[in-house]
């Protein structure tokens, strides 16, 4: 194992490597740009990577990896590497990425629960994660930091550190035990900086930051649903202003798509119902339909249709403001929607969904209906019992069942379809017809 020997042929232990690297990183901050120090750091990191990964000629042994892990923790090297990664040369950054990622995954055979490095970071050194996030401030370190963070945020406790981080009086970051998930965020923590990194960063930085941003908002569903509910106004205000209305086509499109994913996730049902209750949100979605770029229009349509589906079908407490916007714009929408993206002739689902929206807009009352009225359900019943039926109904039902955690196969029409639909919403039908499709509306009573 010649890589572990220095010029005097004395074996280089993992402890020696960690101590030497710590000293060199400290000197790098004192003498920035020193080529000699950078080269020496690169050599140490190269040897550490061989310990963690091995080579075709040299096997990586669990004992050496464990010794390296313990030495890295003892010398606080995770934090020093996270803070210094932007100052390292290219190959050293790649080696740092490999080493830190491996240490995050390292788990002794006798241990249970999260890997020891995750436990250490969460309870003793959350600054490691904050410094890795700050790597997006530099084009050189963004890719390496994103790769490490992608592995780190697989753990809910790490994602919580990022989401709930708030500025502290000292240089230390908030510990897990200091987090209060029911207190709204100030908007000054590290998570909120992702918005600007995505919108204002270079193409590479923006892409890397968005990937982590998306993971944070979609991976740990229960935690994120609570986070979004607590920080609803701040989050969606910033999301719309900075991302959905971004001047960058890529940022705008992928942000609208992610917005649709968030709203459609069953874990975010309460967030979604609050979202569609806002007239301002509906106006924004309608504006996206008129964007000059077709893919922005298409992604915007998916959010718009979900808002409308909730208003028309699944929300007995529908917002008067939202209804009024749709009623006031009924004629414009009925003129606009039939020609909207009409070149998507091979997309049957899109065609069905568009037809459904047109039909429901036609059925809008002349004046908004006060909350707690079942008119939306009656309209939906009218639609599914009047021929011709559409595959859209089955598509909507399948998604509603999925949103309620059901797994029933859907292949139905008419009254059976309606019964399944209301069942999926956890509502009771006091009266409902059975048998073949009816050609006229049916009066039904729906009670909670």
Automatic annotation (TrEMBL):
<comment type="similarity">
    <text>Belongs to the Mo25 family.</text>
</comment>
<dbReference type="GO" id="GO:0035556">
    <property type="term" value="P:intracellular signal transduction"/>
</dbReference>
<dbReference type="GO" id="GO:0071958">
    <property type="term" value="C:new mitotic spindle pole body"/>
</dbReference>
<dbReference type="GO" id="GO:0043539">
    <property type="term" value="F:protein serine/threonine kinase activator activity"/>
</dbReference>
<dbReference type="GO" id="GO:0035839">
    <property type="term" value="C:non-growing cell tip"/>
</dbReference>
<dbReference type="GO" id="GO:0032153">
    <property type="term" value="C:cell division site"/>
</dbReference>
<protein>
    <submittedName>
        <fullName>Conidiophore development protein HymA</fullName>
    </submittedName>
</protein>
<dbReference type="GO" id="GO:2000100">
    <property type="term" value="P:regulation of establishment or maintenance of bipolar cell polarity regulating cell shape"/>
</dbReference>
<dbReference type="GO" id="GO:0005737">
    <property type="term" value="C:cytoplasm"/>
</dbReference>
<dbReference type="InterPro" id="IPR016024">
    <property type="entry name" value="ARM-type_fold"/>
</dbReference>
<dbReference type="GO" id="GO:0071574">
    <property type="term" value="P:protein localization to medial cortex"/>
</dbReference>
<dbReference type="GO" id="GO:0005634">
    <property type="term" value="C:nucleus"/>
</dbReference>
<dbReference type="InterPro" id="IPR011989">
    <property type="entry name" value="ARM-like"/>
</dbReference>
<dbReference type="GO" id="GO:0070507">
    <property type="term" value="P:regulation of microtubule cytoskeleton organization"/>
</dbReference>
<dbReference type="Pfam" id="PF08569">
    <property type="entry name" value="Mo25"/>
</dbReference>
<dbReference type="InterPro" id="IPR013878">
    <property type="entry name" value="Mo25"/>
</dbReference>
């Amino acid at each position: 194992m010649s890589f572990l020997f220095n010029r005097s042929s004395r074996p280089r232990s993992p402890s020696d490597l960690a101590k030497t690297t710590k000293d060199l990183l400290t000197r790098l901050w004192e003498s920035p740009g020193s080529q000699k120090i950078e080269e020496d750091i690169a050599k140490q990191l190269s040897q550490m990577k061989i310990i963690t990964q091995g080579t075709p000629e040299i096997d990586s042994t669990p004992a050496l990896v464990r010794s390296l892990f313990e030495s890295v923790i003892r010398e606080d090297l995770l934090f020093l590497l996270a803070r210094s990664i932007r100052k390292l040369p290219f190959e050293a950054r790649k080696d740092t990425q490999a080493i830190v990622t491996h240490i995050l995954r390292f788990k002794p055979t006798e241990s249970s629960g999260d890997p020891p490095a995750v436990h250490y970071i969460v309870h003793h050194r959350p600054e490691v994660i904050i410094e890795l996030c700050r790597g997006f401030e530099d084009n050189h370190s963004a890719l390496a930091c994103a790769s490490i963070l992608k592995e780190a945020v697989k753990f809910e406790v790490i994602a919580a550190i990022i989401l709930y981080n708030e500025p502290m009086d000292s240089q230390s970051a908030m510990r897990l035990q200091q987090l209060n998930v029911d207190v709204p965020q100030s908007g000054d923590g590290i998570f909120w900086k992702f918005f600007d990194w995505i919108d204002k960063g270079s193409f590479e930085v923006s892409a890397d930051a968005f990937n982590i941003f998306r993971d944070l908002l979609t991976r740990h569903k229960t935690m994120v649903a609570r986070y979004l509910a607590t920080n609803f106004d701040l989050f969606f205000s910033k999301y719309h202003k900075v991302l959905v209305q971004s001047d960058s086509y890529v940022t705008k499109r992928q942000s609208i798509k992610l917005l649709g994913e968030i709203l459609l996730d069953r874990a975010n049902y309460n967030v979604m119902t609050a979202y569609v209750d806002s007239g301002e949100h509906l106006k924004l979605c309608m504006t996206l339909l008129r964007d000059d770029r077709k893919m922005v229009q298409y992604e915007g349509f998916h959010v718009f249709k979900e808002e409308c589906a909730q208003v028309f079908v699944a929300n007995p407490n529908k917002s008067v403001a939202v209804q009024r916007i749709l009623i006031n714009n009924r004629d414009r929408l009925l003129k606009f929607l039939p020609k909207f993206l009409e070149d998507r002739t091979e997309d049957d689902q899109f065609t069905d969904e568009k037809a459904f929206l047109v039909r429901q807009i036609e059925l809008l009352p002349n004046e908004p209906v006060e909350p707690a009225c079942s008119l939306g359900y009656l309209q939906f019943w009218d639609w599914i019992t009047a021929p011709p039926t559409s595959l859209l109904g089955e598509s909507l039902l399948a998604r509603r069942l999925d949103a309620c955690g059901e797994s029933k196969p859907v292949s139905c029409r008419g009254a059976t379809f309606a019964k399944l639909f209301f069942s999926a919403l956890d509502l009771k039908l006091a009266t409902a017809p059975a048998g073949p499709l009816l050609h006229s509306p049916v009066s039904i009573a729906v009670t909670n």
